[in-house]
Every structure is written in structure tokens, then in C-alpha cells.
Amino acid sequence: MEQIKTKIENGDCLEVLKRYPDNFFNLIVTSPPYADSRNKTYGGIKPNEYVEWFLPRAKEFLRVLKPDGTFVLNIKEKAVNGERHTYVIELILALRKQGWLWTEEFVWHKKNCYPGKWPNRFRDAWEKCLQFNKSKKFKMYQEAVMVPMGDWAKGRLKNLSDIDKTRDNSKVGSGFGKNISNWVKRENAYPTNVLHFATECYNRNHSAVFPKALPEWFMKLFTQENDWVLDPFVGSGTTAEVAQNLNRNFVGIDVLSEYCKLAQKRTAHYQYRICEDEDEYETNNQRKNSEVCREKHTGVSSQQNRKVKKTQIESGTQA
Ligand SMILES: C[S@@+](CC[C@H](N)C(=O)[O-])C[C@H]1O[C@@H](n2cnc3c(N)ncnc32)[C@H](O)[C@@H]1O
Predict the structure, then answer these.
(1) Which of 15, 130, 288, 292 is most buried, most CB within 10 Å of its CB?
(2) 208-220: pLDDT as tens digits
(3) Whose CA is nearest to atom 4 of ligand 1?
């Protein structure tokens, strides 16, 4: 098993990324500062200036992403003067001009969105996760995110019509068709582009943490073990922790040193990971090292049927 690296860098991602080569990362997944948000912590960018602020950074993202890689941007436009601002729409158009393909839009439905009442709108219970690519041929591992067939198996798939049993070609001539009977007796189906994840409510000393399940889903879909993942606005290190769990190499950048420290702290205890099974461990002939690591860092005794792999932690924090 290869060692994976986790690197947290302090600085503006625009500058820090200049140190990275072209076509390096397999996935960029991030939640940037939202316009005008959190002014007191990391300084809000005015909605009218958001595209201008984002574009030079996106140019670096485009350069460091592999040709078959993916960029996932979690963002939501705020309401300004009683209507939704259009900066996200303008950003999508500008990114397309910059050379990105806008491949897909996922909706993150916040299952546990807190209650509230506003005079002219309802609770905001979803955010966009915009998918951009450099080319139409990008790496995607759809089997990694399959979901149980669930109610479909009990209902619709039990009562198939004659049309369901043959290929039903699109009535609008799109060339698409479906044969629903193909899915009978299957346990898993491909998910939709609506992702239902609860926000995580515990305080991480950061005001805009997203749930681990969100980057985890995208890392499984767009990367494999030992691939490289970038979060240029890493905040408290949610993506860093998930990348370590999934054995992905990781670079996270944040302009605030206190958030870099948070992210480092959050990932440090994963330095020694329990991940190899007995046979693999024995054949890798790492018994001595692993036993020391295990007892020192995890408290798991050498008698237990669990093994340890060392993960290298690096720090680029200036603070
Ligand atoms: C929405 S938060 C990210 C939260 C993160 N997803 C988490 O789970 O903790 C955006 C982060 O971007 C950082 N940031 C703002 N401008 C930046 C820049 N130019 N370069 C790097 N980081 C920046 C902020 O300090 C903030 O921590």
C-alpha cells in the first residue's frame, strides 16, 4: 500500500498554486467564501465583484487540474434587496468563457435545515454543487456511489407494463431510451443529481463548515486511491480529513493561518491509520513498525486483528 500525503498550506490560493505544476490534481472540490458572507472572519467579497475576484483563481485551478480531472464548486447566491443576486449565474458564464465545460449541476439538499420564517421566502434548504471539466472525457467511477434500489424494487419494478419490458425510446427523438426491466432483481441503482446530506452541527471553530458526506461523495465519484485532491479554500479541513479517510493525497489552502492550524489539528490524529488486514500486513513484512505505531498512536494492542499504515503529514503553514 502506498503512503499518501496531506499538505495544508497557508496563503492566498492564487499565489500558493503558482508553486504547483500544470495538470497535477485529479479533483478540485471546494466551498469558496460566499459573496458578502462572514465579513468579520475572512472578509466578504462584494456580490458585484465576485466574478472578477474568482476568475484569476479559477485560471490557476484550470492549469493545475489534469485534463481528465473534475472541479466541483459548492456555492449559493445570496438574496440582495429582496431578490437573488445573479453572481453565480454570471460566474458560470465567465468560467465557460475561461475554458471550463459546465458539465453538471448537483443539488445538495440540507436534510436538517433549521426552521425559520422570512416575509418573502421560505427556508433555504439547498445549495449548488457545480461540476466543471476541462474535457468531455473525464474520469468518473459511478459504481462507487451506487445506492440501494429501495422503494423502486418494492413498487414500480414489481408491476411492469409491456412498454417497461422492452426498450422505450424517447418520444422527443433525443436518441435516449430506457428499459426498466433491466433493473429488476438488482440491489443497487445509480443515484440522482440531488444529494441529501444533513449539515453537521458541531462547532469546529469555523463558521462555514460543510458535512464530510458532501466531499466524500465527490471524491468517491471522481477519484481513486492515491489520486490527488485539492481544496483551495480548505477552512477547518473537512476535505482534508475525508481525503485521508479515503486514501487520497491532498493539498488544502487557506488564507487564514488559524484555519490552517485547525485543518492540521483535524488531520494529525490520522497520522497512523488502521487499514490493512492481517494477510496483507504479514506479506508486506511491516510487522515491527506497525506494532510500535499501533500501540503508541491508536492504543490497539498487537494481539488485535487490525493493522496500521503510516500516512505522511506535511505542513506548509507559515504561522
Ligand atoms: C466557506 S469556507 C470553507 C469551509 C470548509 N469547506 C470547511 O468545511 O471548513 C471558505 C474558506 O476560504 C478561505 N479563503 C478566503 N479567501 C481565500 C483565498 N484567497 N485563498 C485561500 N483561502 C481563502 C476562508 O478563510 C475560509 O476558511
Answers:
(1) 130
(2) 678 999 999 999 9
(3) 235
